[in-house]
Structures are given as C-alpha cells and as structure tokens.
Design goal:
- The complex is a heterodimer of chains A (107) and B (591).
- Chain A is mainly beta and 107 residues long.
- Chain A has no helices and eight strands.
- Chain A has a five-stranded antiparallel β-sheet with strand order 4-5-6-7-8, with no helix packed on it. Chain A has a three-stranded antiparallel β-sheet with strand order 1-2-3, with no helix packed on it.
- In chain A, a hairpin with a 2-residue loop joins strand 5 and strand 6.
- With 591 residues, chain B is of the alpha+beta class.
- Chain B is globular.
- Classes of the chains: A mainly beta (107), B alpha+beta (591).
- Chains A and B meet through strand 3 and strand 5 of A and helix 3 and strand 19 of B.
C-alpha cells in the first residue's frame, strides 16, 4: 500500500494517510550540532514545509527555533516517526533525535 | 510540481463544493472516505468551513464574512440564533462559558463546534437573511474589509461601502476568480482615518483624488502585496495607479487575474501576492496589469490622505479605533462598543441585538479591532441605550488595556497556534487594569496577542506585540511569548521590533508593567509610546523590559496543544469525545 504523506493547513500538520499525525508547536530535542551548538538543542517546530519517507522513517522539512540560543533555521530531515505494516508510529519529541542524512546514513 | 492542494482544486473547487457538503451532511461525518479527508477539508474551506484541530475531529469552525463588517438589521440576530442552536461544545470555557461568537480582525464572525450534519440548515438560515460563508476561507477572495461606518461617517472621502459591496458581488462565486494560488485579501478605505488598514492586504484601495482633464476626480490609489504572515511582513506597495470608483472593479479583477496566472502554485509558502511583488517589483506589476489585464489607460496615482490616517497609528491624533460615541452625517450617532478579544457570549449577544433593534436601526457593524458598532442611534435614545446592563461589559468607554486588546483563536481550536491566547489575553488585560497605571495622557495602548507567526491578531502593528513561542522554565517546556514594540499604521506604518524573545507567559504581565514604568520615567514630555520606541534601538528597548513573576496566575503554561481542549477537566488527547456523530455521541475508533 502506498503511503499518502503531506503537510496541511499552512504547515500546521504532517498528514499520513489522511490522518493528522504530527503537529507543529512541540519542542523536539536534537543532538549537538544537528541544529545549533546547544547540547541538546530544544527546538520548537513552527511550521512543516515538506515531508518525505526514507525507508520506513518519515522525515520532515521544518522551520524551528532553539529555545536556548534563539537560532531560527530550517531543519532538513527530522525523523518524526516510522511506518510499520502501513501504520505510523510517531517518535517522542522529547527523545533525543538525530537528523537523517540524505543517503539514509546517520551520524 | 503543483502541490496536492492544487491537484484537489483542479479536480473540484468553487461552487461545486456545496453539493458535496450537502451530500456528506446528509450521510453523516463518517461518510467522508478516510483516504479523501485531507482533500475534502481543504475544499470545505471555500465555503467557510475549517476543520478544527486534532482532538476535535468532526467539529468545524464556520466563518461568516459580511463585506466591510456590515450586518444589516436582522443579520446579527440570525447569527446569534445559529450560534445558540448549533455552536455549543462538549466542554465549557472558564472565561466564556459554552456558546459565543468571535469577531475577527477581518470583520467576520466565527462560530466553533459546528457539526457537518447541521451545515445545510445553517447555510439556509444565513442565506434567508442575505448572509453567506462563501469564500470566507480557502484560496480565493476572502471577506473584503473596509470602513465599517462607510456611508455614515463624517470622515468619509469616498463611499468605500459601495465599492466593497460591488467587489463582493462581482468576485464571490465568480468562476474566473474562484481558484487563486492562495488567499486574496482586499481592503477598501474611504475615510481620512485609514480604518480599512489597507497596508496589510494583498490589494488595497485607498482614498485619493486626481486632476483628470481639468477636473478633480475622487477615487482610489492602489497598493498591492501587503501581509503579515510567516515572519515575512510586508506593507502593500504603491503601484502608481489611481482609479475612479467606476473603474475600480476592473482594476481589482485585473490584479486578481494577474495573481491567478502568475502566483506560485508549486510552493504554498511562496504563493502570496507579497512574494510576487517582491520578485517583480511594483513597476512590473503595473506594466503587466496595463499590458495584459485592463483595456483602458491606467492613471498614475493621485493625491492620497495618508497624512491624516489615525487608525491604529499610535502617535497620531484621531480616533485610533471606532470605540465611543461618534456623530454620523445624518445627525444620528454611532456607538462603538469594546468586545474584549472579540468574543461575545450568546446571552450577551441577544441583549445587544435587542438593544440595537429597540433604540437604533438594528444594524451591527464589525471592526478590524474585533469590536462592534451600533449605527443609527438617535441622540434622544442614547442614554436609554447605554443604560442597558450589557453595555457595562461591552462598553463605549472601556479601560485602555481592555480597549487595546486583540487576540487570535489560539490553541483552543487552531492547528497552527503555539499557545493559548484568548483566555490569556483576558487575564492579562484584567491584571494590567488592576495593577498598572498608564502614563499621563496615554489613552490608547494596543496589545495584540497572536498564537503563531500566521499573525491573525496582527501583532506587528501594535504598541506591544505578543507572539506565541515556547521556552524552558525550571527544566520544563512552557508556553512563552516573543515581545515586540512600537508597531502601528498611519501615514508611515511601522512593524514592531522584536526586542525580547521567549518570555515565559506568566512573566509577560510583569514585563509590560516594568516597560510602562520605564517609559513613564524616560519619556520626553507627552511623547507617545510609538514615538518613544522609534527614538531607541533594539538593545535600549530590550533593557526596558524586565520579565518577572507577579501575582498574575497563568493556568495555561502547559502544552495546551497537546490537549483535546485546554480547559476540560480531563484535557488529555485520549479523553477527547471527538470525532462525534451529529448528536454528540463519540464515534468509536477502529483500533
């Protein structure tokens, strides 16, 4: 089954198979250097720009801001959850995340 | 590659959506195929229906957009009746109860907790009195804003109401303009006070006059490409065009068609007119309009009235808003009433409708500062009208902190918002009124709270701008606000400077209190707050703000977006009663 992935409502959501699954306005923890120099970086997601799938991992392109140093930047490949047997399992924003490299390798 | 939204719009959009809404309403919420919901909810927006956020599935916000905010006699009461019958939610709001109308910054009214099954009946009742939800949301001509007292105002230069009505009749349900790349916001100002707020619209008509063939002609100058959203605020750019009222519809149609044909349909973040004007420049917009979209010679811009603009201008003499009692041209008066954060409880709304019908013409008009106006009040009825108890709360003479408060919908219902807004702004205004003195002579002080960068509360054009954020406090993420200062419109509009970021929401009242103390101490004579801000750089301004906890209590510091409803006793998403059937019974999950 193909997975329908899209952002919705001016980037407020990531929709997966027509169900609103991941919302902006959560604070995500990112490992050092993935977004800014803070360790870890607590990044508020302000909008989703695009969404893609890398293997089984759903990755978002988002705009975010670090709550400690104030860096505002785009996040190219933030893993937000996994597809397993056509079901989506979201990652916990508070769990430390890494960014997915374009070729699927991870730091 | 065109976006999914463009594909959906190509398949079905515009007036054809009505029949589909009625079909789904007849068959019930569950009849919308699960794999088509994103597409249908996007299309429903064109008819003013916006699916509420996660945790509130199957409930909709419904927006009614009267041009220039003018509700004819009987129309306000009809909206109140609809809200009374159809706009009750599964839980109470502690500040507002259960059932209200929200007056918006685009002179519309929003109702929440609407069930799809009720929508055809609501449409019929609205149309019965000449109201509509058509194009209140979606990628097309939105509600046309403008002078809410057009036709009655002593400050009127040209009748903006007539043009707003003509534009509404021409471009609503007009197939050629139904499917634009993004929303298209139009403003028509006719007065010398600038109350149409044209500078923040995609297309703005502003009063002007021009010498043509030896005669002075009254009409409009045209500006395009204004807007506040996405951290990319722009004031509308002057394209050096004057139009007579008779040609204004053709000019508007030409610019709408230009946007339709040249706006970016591949990237919705780049799709608004402001970005096209950035890319092309105003000269190229004018040249293309002339070459391809109108069949008459465009006049160059005329003399405008911007130097007298006082609406939301901060440093000017004049009205700043429509609150208070003001003379009309016909000898009657209009009464501008303060509606704190734009929300009117249903019982209060009935009393307002009763008073408008008993002591005035029954008209109720909506302003861009989320307030309402009762027009056509004979002077001899004024005292009796104002003696009605409801006008103690909805007052023509409110405290400046209440008068100046604007708030968007916030996480109560909105998908984009980062923080709770309306209840918080009510609590801020209450605390500031009780604890903070404004400096001598400061009678207008605007505080706008927007939950996110979409800027629906127009935060960048306030004395104090508040924008939803998060921060960490005592190791935990909490709701916070960025603070900007010194924004406003007027002859030379200015966006606020964001001088303090990520202030915990419970420390913001303390920050405003210290800011005003420092302003009073350092102010030069009777300098306005906006002038005071303009004299200082951002670092100096940041030093004036000292966030601190006070006895202000904020019950919404947690992640209100992670609730199904921030005020419910059990507010967790797992406790949501949504989705629900038409009678309110929850629909069980398939899991």
């Amino acid at each position: 089954m193909s997975i329908a992935l899209r952002t919705l409502d001016d980037g407020a959501w990531i929709s997966i198979n027509d169900s609103r699954q991941v919302s902006v306005s959560d604070v995500w923890s990112l490992t050092t250097g993935a977004f800014c120099d803070c360790s870890p970086a607590y990044v508020l997601l302000e909008a989703f720009v695009d969404v893609d799938i890398d293997g089984s991992i759903v990755v978002a392109h988002a705009i975010g801001q670090c709550l400690e140093c104030g860096t505002r930047d785009s996040i190219e490949r933030l893993p937000v959850g996994r597809i397993v047997n056509d079901d989506f399992y979201p990652y916990d924003p508070e769990g430390v995340q890494w960014l997915v490299e374009p070729d699927g390798d991870r730091p | 590659m065109p976006t999914d939204v463009e594909h959906w719009k190509d398949e079905l959009y515009g007036t054809e959506i009505r029949a589909e809404i009625e079909r789904f309403a007849e068959e019930g919420w569950e009849s919308i195929p699960e794999d088509e919901r994103d597409a249908w909810f996007e299309r429903f927006k064109w008819f003013g229906l916006y699916h509420q956020r996660a945790g509130q599935e199957s409930y909709f916000m419904l927006r009614i957009g009267p041009p220039s905010g003018v509700l004819e006699p009987g129309q306000f009461r009809r909206i109140v009746e609809i809200a009374d019958e159809f706009s009750r939610g599964p839980a109470e709001n502690p500040e507002f109860g259960n059932g209200w109308l929200d007056v918006t910054t685009r002179q519309a009214i929003q109702l929440h907790w609407i069930r799809l099954e009720d929508v055809p009946e609501i449409f019929d009742r609205l149309e019965d009195v000449g109201l509509s939800t058509v194009q209140a949301c979606g990628d097309s001509w939105r509600n046309i804003v403008g002078c809410p007292v057009a036709g009655k105002d002593k400050h009127e230069h040209v009748d903006a109401g007539a043009l707003a009505t003509e534009l509404n009749e021409t471009f609503k349900q007009n197939e050629a303009h139904s499917n634009l790349p993004r929303k298209w916001k139009v403003s028509v100002t006719g007065c010398d006070e600038g109350c149409g707020q044209g500078d923040i619209n995609d297309l703005s008509f502003e009063p002007a006059e021009k010498e043509i063939d030896g005669e002075t002609v009254t009409g409009y100058n045209v500006r395009v490409g204004g807007g506040l959203s996405r951290n990319e605020p722009r004031f509308a750019r002057n394209i050096d065009v004057f139009t007579t009222p008779e040609q204004a519809v053709d000019v508007a149609g030409g610019l709408s068609a230009l946007f339709r044909d040249h706006g970016d349909r591949e990237n919705r973040y780049n799709a608004r007119m402001k970005f096209l004007v950035d890319e092309w420049g105003p000269e190229n917009v004018r040249e293309t309009l002339q070459a391809d979209y109108v069949d008459f010679e465009l006049e160059t811009a005329g003399d405008d009235l911007r130097e007298s603009y006082s609406y939301n201008a901060g440093d000017a003499d004049g009205k700043h808003d429509h609150v208070g009692i003001h003379e009309q041209v016909d000898g009657n008066v209009y009464v501008g009433l303060n509606v704190l954060v734009g929300r009117i409880g249903i019982d209060d709304a009935y009393e307002i409708a009763d008073a408008a019908e008993a002591y005035a013409s029954g008209e109720v008009r909506l302003t861009q500062r989320q307030n309402i106006i009762l027009t056509d009040v004979p002077e001899e009825n004024l005292d009796t009208l104002l003696a009605e108890p409801v006008f103690e709360e909805y007052s023509p003479d409110p405290h400046p902190f209440q008068r100046g408060s604007i708030a968007c919908t916030g996480t109560e219902f909105c998908s984009l918002s980062i923080v709770e807004t309306k209840n918080r702004q009510v609590r801020y205004a209450r605390w500031l009124k009780e604890n903070v003195d404004l400096p001598d002579g400061v009678e207008d002080f605007h505080i706008h709270l927007s939950g996110c960068t979409a800027s629906c509360a127009q935060p960048q054009i306030a004395d104090v701008s508040l924008r939803g954020m998060k921060t960490r406090k005592n190791g935990e993420p909490v709701e916070a606000l960025d603070i900007g200062l010194g924004g406003g419109l007027g002859e030379s509009p200015q966006f606020a400077s964001w001088v303090a970021e990520r202030i915990p929401a419970d420390e913001v009242p303390g920050a405003i209190a210290t800011l005003l103390e420092n302003f009073a101490a350092a102010r030069d004579g009777d300098e306005s707050f906006r002038e005071f801000v303009l004299e200082r750089d951002d670092d100096e301004l940041a030093d004036l703000i000292e966030p601190e906890e006070t006895d202000y209590d904020d019950p919404y510091m947690h992640n209100t977006k992670r609730t199904w409803y921030p005020y419910a006793e059990d507010d967790g998403l797992d406790a949501s009663p949504a989705p629900a059937r038409a009678d309110g019974t929850p629909i069980p999950s398939d899991d």
